[in-house]
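Example record for the data management plan.
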Amino acid sequence: MSQDGQGYMTDERRMIRDAAREFTMKEVLPVANQLDGPEGEIPMALRQKMADMGYFGIMIPEEYGGLGLGYFEYCLICEQLARGWMSVASIVARAQGGWIKSAMPEAMRQRYLPRVVRGEFLNASALSEPDTGSDLASISCRAVRDGDDWVLTGNKYWCTFADGADYITLFARTAPPPSADKRHLGLSCFLIEKERGGFPKGITGAPIPKIGYFGWKTYELALDGLRVPASGLIGEEGKAFLLMTKGLEGARAHTAARAIGLAQGALEDATAYALERKQFGMPIAEYQAIRFKLATMATEIEAARQLMHFVCSELDSGRRCDKEASMAKYFASEMAERVTSEALQIFGGAGYTKLFAVERYWRDARLTKIFEGTSEIQQRIIATHLLGKSEVEAMIAARAFEKQAKREAA
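Corresponding structural encoding:
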């Protein structure tokens, strides 16, 4: 297992990575296959062990009880956790705060962040809607001010962990867009506190059946007169879109880390299986076809890892890296699907059973090409930067083109 990026890895980072690897192999991997099912969930006992390791406060400042580390360490840890079970690597993201943390007033940070570090206050994000996926500027869920409250009405989709979370960050439109080319204005973000295991008055939820990413449920939410106190507004009213895009670089680096972890797990399992499995009198690892597969898999994983390391370094240096973050997410997720598929092929028929983890890696790797922006969205962002346009301008232009095409077709 190489994983030592030249110029990026320090002794401290190696220790952090190795500790996460040890934790994953001891605490996560042995239970992952058993718990990964439509009704499965990440046990509270495992969550507490993660809290004890500090994994819910990796990037939260020490003054609030966190580790005070950066994106690099965050992604190192999440890569290792994903090697065991992607859901565990994902629940860590429910606690880091990210752009939400930066937009909170100090009183809110003092109140919430210590609880976040202890794993007592975890988040579910409600961005997407039934008719709004990657085009977040088209959010139609409404929030109307009524005295000291906001009243929210509408529908949200793909809200993972909505039932088990302690709060939901929800994006809604508080004002109509001023013009067609400024659809991203008028969106606001709200923090909705709730009890674990249910929903507050004004929200009903129904789980969406999935083929993977088990360990928690993903919900469709219906909001009907949900009242949120004015203090629940995060950041400036009407400017949440820019707040949202601010966090996408880190989210895409995190997705790249999860994809790399899945692929690494598949490679390690396939290598071990190839050494043990015998056909025609010798281990299948002796056949050139298998060796070439393993060599290609390992090379692609390391290439994705180095790109992810670069993006994390840029993020921790405070430099914008929209294009590079999209490259890392795009390349790593596409790589993970290829590598896990090849690993399953090495297992043969055994790989298409629940007896080995490789089928789980394969199912979860497929999702990395979709969430946090599909591969096609990442390609569009990369091309947009190459052509010299900002992401927001490209979004608006694409939407305008789509509407014009519909008018002409009619």
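Summary line stored alongside the record: Residues 248-276 form the longest helix (29 residues).
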